[in-house]
Amino acid sequence: MKKAIKVIIVTIAIIVLLALIFFVVDYNRVQKQERPIFCIQNPAGIISDGGTIEYFGLGYKVIDFHTLAGFDDIKIGTWLMDYNDFEQEMKEYEMKIDTNNKKHYSKTIDETLIELDIPNTWNYEEMPKDEENDFYKYALKIYKDNDEQYAMLYVYNTMFGVCGTGRTSKNVILNNGKEATIGYYDGNNNWSDISFYKIDEYIAVINYGLVDSNAEEIIKIIKTINITNEQNDTKSNRTPDNVIIEVESTTIKPESVTITITDNNENQYGWGVEFRVQEKVNGEWKNLNYVSDDLPWIDIAYELGEDKQLTQKLDIEKYYGKLSNGIYRIVKPVYDNGYVDIYSNEFEIK
What we know:
Layout: H1 2-31, E1 40-41, E2 53-56, E3 61-66, E4 72-77, H2 87-100, E5 102-109, E6 112-119, E7 123-126, E8 136-143, E9 150-156, E10 167-173, E11 179-185, E12 193-195, E13 203-208, H3 212-222, E14 226-229, H4 232-235, E15 243-247, E16 256-263, E17 276-281, E18 284-287, E19 309-315, H5 316-320, E20 326-335, E21 339-343, E22 347-349
């Protein structure tokens, strides 16, 4: 028994001694900005920030930073050390680099001012309009090494819209605290478009061939954008009182209904696909629950016709299940310096 305990103590002592030796060697290498030699790479692989790699040693951890912004450093600590522990240090580095290595671009189109910061490693040029390209008022081409792979910032003549088939999207916060939407198609990791529905429905960025790190760099550039529209005061005069949402009586089913939106505002709202269903219970309106929290809404802004109307078929079953007997109404949220709910007429499921 005593012999077994002695063997265990000796084994632990050897492991501790080796751990100390390994740590000292790797610590000295890290101080010289050299990679560790007594560590294994994280099986999860390289972090998708430009090439950062994590290593695990005997009781310690090494992070070899290589970010898209150029933050290049090696850190050593315990296994509890985390990538996000150095977020502030990386931000300070990026701010320092951005200040010295960027061009501030500014352009006014009609009454809309567009500003953004473009790194010196990227190029840009304003694209002239011609008879074949009369769908936009203004276009700015942004590219790096290959001018055939670029992003194009458009100010459109009409509201920007997208095809919903095969599309997914995510919202990102711009540097000024406002929100933009990034769109993807058919499972592609490289984005397709960036829109600004909550700021200006007429402005969007389209990806023409940018992939991987270049596509990610453009997102960082676009996050510096500021869009100031002197017509915002006019847009804020829009009112829900000038909108009618009517459920067409001949289309009412437990699975779906069709609505007609009539927007008589001079500066109309941006109408998307999102909707809610409310049921009247004991004289009060109650929101129905989604059948799943994993059902995203497609970010599309539809333009109304010359009659100021838009017709939409709503797939109620997909989002809320089949409606049981009762009194219901449709709620359409619109954005106007904050979300506003606009309600349809009541309809009954018998």
